[in-house]
Amino acid sequence: MLFMVIERFKNHDAKSIYQRAREQGRMMPEGLTYRGSWVETNFDRCFQLMETDDAALLEQWAAHWRDLVVFEFVRVFTSEQAAEAAKRL
């Protein structure tokens, strides 16, 4: 399953987030795969695409960052998958 992770940086504190990432890495549990990310130019939000078969792993990962980030998890699929699903509607 694919998830768009929307991260809102608390207090616009991107510096602390990037520092922790440099020092400790992403701290993702096994079974959670990072696919890519995009950051707003004002550092308000980050959009990460993650993949996992166990959505509970997202919460495990987020626990390492909740002091700095507010998370929203949105299950998504590719446009190709959406086109196939739309045929069945």
Summarize the structure.
With 89 residues, the protein is of the alpha+beta class.
Termini separation: 20 Å
Q: Sheet bearing the most strands, described?
A: 4 strands, antiparallel
Given the structure, what is the number of helices?
3
Detail the poorly predicted runs: none
Shape: globular
Judged by helices, strands and strand pairing, the structural class is alpha+beta
Estimate percent helicity: 25-40%
Q: Specify Rg, calculated over alpha carbons.
A: 14 Å
The number of strands is: 4
What is the succession of H and E elements?
A: EHEEHEH
Strand content: 35-45%
Mean of residue pLDDT? Answer: 96
**What is the spatial order of strands in the main beta sheet?**
2-3-1-4
What do you see in this structure?
The protein starts with a strand and ends with a helix. The mean pLDDT is 96. The longest helix is centred in the N-terminal third of the chain and has 11 residues. Helix content is 30%, strand content 36%. It contains 3 helices and 4 strands. A hairpin with a 5-residue loop joins strand 2 and strand 3.
Based on the model shown, name its key terms.
single chain; 3 helices
Architecture blueprint of SSEs:
Layout (H helix, E strand, L loop, with lengths): L1 E8 L4 H11 L7 E8 L5 E8 L3 H7 L6 E8 L2 H9 L2
